[in-house]
Amino acid sequence: MKKYLEFLIKGIYAGVLIGMGGVAYLAIENKIVGSFIFSFGLLTVCMYSLNLYTGKVGYVLQNKASYLIELFISLVGNFIGTFVVGNLIRLTRFKNYIDTAKNIVNIKLNDNLLSIFILAIFCGMIMYIAVNNYKKSKDVLGKYITIFMGIMAFILCGFEHCVANMFYFSIAGVYSSKAFLYLLVMILGNSLGSILIAFYDNCYNKK
Known about the structure:
Layout: H1 2-27, H2 31-47, H3 53-56, H4 67-89, H5 95-109, H6 113-136, H7 140-157, H8 162-172, H9 177-204
Helix pairs in contact: 1-2, 1-4, 1-8, 2-7, 4-8, 5-8, 6-7, 6-9, 8-9
């Protein structure tokens, strides 16, 4: 029971940090600068060994079936963390962030599910590469560059990250059955993309 609570707490903290990265992105008009600052979220998640679903799901191939429980609990924690940050920001003077988030969310919810799924797959690939390189790279500079480039790439390309979108849905206040359906598709896409790259890494990239 203690380990499950730890999974949840690490998941919540990861969600909070991704939410903080999202707030920074909403605060900056320049998308390039905003995506760079958003990288703070994933960088701190990696530095503090927190449980971000999109950073962990690719390792499902290397773990026992019980790892699925850790993934699920981490995802729940990510949702709680982003939900708390999003709704706390709604209580502040940053009302313009809500409008910006609504515009972002409307684009996503007006897209079709196949498009969302494909864009989520690409995001999942990037996330595995960024996190895995951070873990394995012996070059300190290389660790950080991959994190920043990975986050900037998925944001500027418009790829779909399920946890980041949990934050945007929360601050926009648009949670609905449709929003949850879209989130589920994003989760599946992120998972598949991450696992596809992990499969190659484990089977064909051994050194």
